[in-house]
Amino acid sequence: MSRSYGFDTLQIHAGARPDPATGARQVPIYQTTAYVFRDADHAAALFNLQEVGYIYSRLTNPTVAVLGERIATLEGGVGAVCCSSGHAAQIMALFPLMGPGCNLIASTRLYGGTVTQFSQTIKRFGWSAKFVDFDDLDALAAAIDGNTRAIFCESIANPGGYITDIRAVADVADRAGLPLIVDNTSATPWLCRPIDLGATLVVHSTTKYLTGNGTVTGGAIVDSGKFDWSASGKFPSLSAPEPAYHGLKFHETFGPLAFTFHSIAIGLRDLGMTMNPQGAHYTLMGIETLSLRMQRHVENARKVAEWLENDPRVEHVTYAGLPSSPYYERGKRVCPKGAGALFTFAVRGGYQACVKLVDSLELFSHVANLGDTRSLIIHSASTTHRQLTPEQQKAAGAAPNVVRVSIGIEDADDIIADLDQALAKATA
Ligand SMILES: *Cc1c(COP(=O)(O)O)cnc(C)c1O
Questions:
Q1: Which residue has the least CA distance to atom 6 on ligand 1?
Q2: 51 vs 29, 47, 55, CA distance in Å?
Q3: Top-level CATH class of 291-426?
């Protein structure tokens, strides 16, 4: 069949085929660490990357490979590598690009854990990050220097309410000859396709909506296959002979798949941030219903945000799906099917009222997670964004009087009723 399938079909079928050994229709969980070589020549060809196949599950595994192909297809990329978590995916995305003394330019509006990873932990590798407000494109361009190797942002930024103008940021990256990495966790490819808007790489925490039910941590990096790694000499690990793989030139050898092969042959081999097949299985189960869930997530989020905005106990709601949001029009361009299901609102009564609200909710779960079928809440300032300075908290949309919600796919009326009774207690 030559027609190209739609999203709903691909989220079920992409990457999967009946198991060649048994005919199993669902993707088997290949719970194995190693694979028997046909003979010594076969083993040598696999280790030389002359033949594609399975060696050892730190590198590749058939169950994990199906998930990688599915995510790559849904994002419109040429290849993907799955990792043990979203944070692992971020390090893996930067690893082929960076070296000691190199920096990346990152948006100020990021998941709290990413701010910490970029502002503190990567320094141990000799890498650094400069944080810039990505609404100020001149400041973004000005921050780029001779040692910059990547630009990093989120499509719909966690903790919510902010949407990045990906195409405009991609234009800045293009002019500087740099890859743009977009974390598409909060939007998912159903709401936003960063590669269509000019992104080079897309990273995911599959822990969230892609799995969708709060069962496993995982991550993925999708490569658009469009970046010319050899154009500038800035990415020697991809363009020049790589000493960590007996002098192989990845870009020359693998063309648009250079990044993906590098991430497996060197990244997973030496960093070992591998997704396990059982984890991939849960995510494959979840991803089959991604579009159906996201539709309901967005529908519920809009209803709840509208209700909150009209409630006098609430100071303001930052949801890009509300016409009152400064990001409403941009949202319609960047994520035309909806602004996600993650947003924040400020409660009258400040920090104490937020803590009381969180403790009074019954249906909502108080957890450091998002993108579950269940409605979730967190007071970012006392939890996920606790390590940040007050200025960083505010810049990240996590001020002390603000709570973040991840609206689930329960009955919207039940979600609203729960907020109603808890707000009554919080502001009494
Ligand atoms: C959760 C999250 C991460 C980190 O992912 P883990 O799977 O928890 O490591 C990164 N970015 C965003 C936007 C997230 O929501």
A1: 86
A2: 23, 8, 11
A3: alpha beta
89, two tokens: 């995916």
Burial of 101 (0-12, 13-18, 19+ CB in 10 A): exposed
What CATH code is assigned to 7-286?
3.40.640.10
Under 8 Å between Cβ of 422 and 361: yes
Domain edges within the chain: 7-286, 291-426
Decide: 219 and 231 in contact? Cβ < 8 Å: no
| Ligand 1 first shell, C-beta below 6 A | 85-87, 111, 113-114, 154, 158, 183, 185-186, 205, 207-208, 217, 219, 370
C-beta separation of 36 from 54 below 8 A: no
Burial label for 336, CB within 10 Å (0-12, 13-18, 19+), is exposed
Beta bridge partners of 183: 154, 203
Residue 401 near residue 354, CB atoms below 8 Å: yes
Question: Which of 116, 185, 405 should be mutated for ligand 1, with most atoms under 8 A from CB?
Answer: 185
What the block records as the tokens of 398 is 């996590």
Burial of 303 (0-12, 13-18, 19+ CB in 10 A): middle
pLDDT digit string (tens) for the chain, length 428 residues: 457 999 999 999 999 999 999 999 999 999 999 999 999 999 999 988 889 899 999 999 999 999 999 999 999 999 999 999 999 999 999 999 999 999 999 999 998 889 999 999 999 999 999 999 999 999 999 999 999 999 999 999 977 789 999 999 999 999 999 999 999 999 999 999 999 999 999 999 999 999 999 999 999 999 999 999 999 999 999 999 999 999 999 999 999 999 999 999 999 999 999 999 999 999 999 999 999 999 999 999 999 999 999 999 999 999 999 999 999 999 999 999 999 999 999 999 988 999 999 999 999 999 988 999 999 999 988 887 777 787 877 776 788 899 999 999 999 999 999 999 999 999 98
Tell me which residue has its CA closest to atom 2 in ligand 1.
205
Q: Which two tokens stand for residue 360?
A: 């009074």
How far is Cα of residue 361 from the mean position of the Cα atoms in its chain? 28
Other Cβ atoms less than 10 A from the Cβ of 326: the count is 13
Which ligand 1 atom is at minimum distance from the Cα of 90?
10
pTM above 0.90, yes or no: yes
